[in-house]
Amino acid sequence: MTLPPALEAGDIFPDTARARGAHLEIGGCDVVELAERFGTPLYIYDEASVQSRASAYTNALARSYPGRSLVCFAAKAYCAPWLLRLVERQGLGLDVVSGGELHAALAVGFPAGRVYFHGNNKTEEELERALDAGVGRIVLDNLEELARVARLAEARRVRQAVLLRVGPDINAHTHAHLQTGAADTKFGLGIASGQAAEGLRAALAEPSLDLRGIHAHIGSQIFEIETYAEAIDRLFALAASLRESGLDLRELSPGGGFGVRYTPEDPSLRTEHAIAQIGALVATAAQRHGYARLPDLTIEPGRSLIASSAVALYRVGSVKPIPNGRTYVAVDGGMADNIRPTAYGAEYTAVVADRLADPADTEVAVAGRYCESGDILIQRVKVPLPRPGDLVAIPSAGAYQLSMASNYNMAPRPAVVVVANGEARLVRRRESYDDLLRSDAEGGAASPP
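Predicted structure:
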């Protein structure tokens, strides 16, 4: 049987994805049976894929970097109790960017000392919670926040370990919405403008702040290691220029943002190889800038750890050919569970999960069910001509889909299952219509006559 190219690509679907006859199987589970059991839309995560990536990243960094190192999962990619417990067991740290993500981490017992609190506008309440919980690092974004954390830490009589986020003024080759290291960005203090040096001196002057080092992030979906090399050199040059001001560079974080494939046409990047290269680049840059003692190194994969670990499974509701146009295959999900195609033109591929043996000879558009013309999950993909009731599986669905999901059109958010060794466990039930009204002040129950 000839498999669809996306399934043969090897790094778009989960590691355990394969054909069981004409059906797609993940983690030893037939997705057709999963759809019958749990309904659709359904997000299916492969536990083995997450574990293997976490282990590969940690080992790659440890092998390539002679100093201490830590891989931190970026929770904004997808934050769920089952996943936080899994990455904690793998020995990873955790990047959080909100009070909600911090609450989730603490609720599952994630060690606060391995939590890094990021964000460009943390509220005072969030900072108080972080300080009271004893988070390992607070990553300072601006001078106002620096003064705020210093004041709150002093009131608690603690000396909080912090990093300062700096902008290396690098335009990464990615979508404009995914660039975070350019000169004109809402994140951090720019190196070229002198603001980063000003922020570092200000942090050194605060007795309640323990300035460990610097952090940067150049963007997401980055495939070029050269971009990281340039950023790392600028971070070391900045730190070296402030030696006489008392800056002891004990920790460095060049961020994450490693690219992943969404279609067979996308470039391929072995993330563990990229991580190993970054470890070597940091060690070399440290030596070049006169650092005999290597700083602790942290990296922040989010998307690359979990994107290809999951598929989104939808059921076809209608198939509508347009004369002199495309054939629209409408599924029971769309922009409410995956905003990425609508938000910034993200591209995906797909397979008909219950007809893998049929030739993929028809070009279609996969359309969502929501009342927006822009609700198109895939503009063009070749599959067997779907029929109502067929199942469409879209891979690389593990990151930045559920984390950005909404209840647009008052649609319940989908269920999530984790599969491993032929067993499936429900980790998030499908929302009900009553759930949609649960937070409204007047509730949803009808008044008695």
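Summary: The chain has 13 helices and 21 strands.
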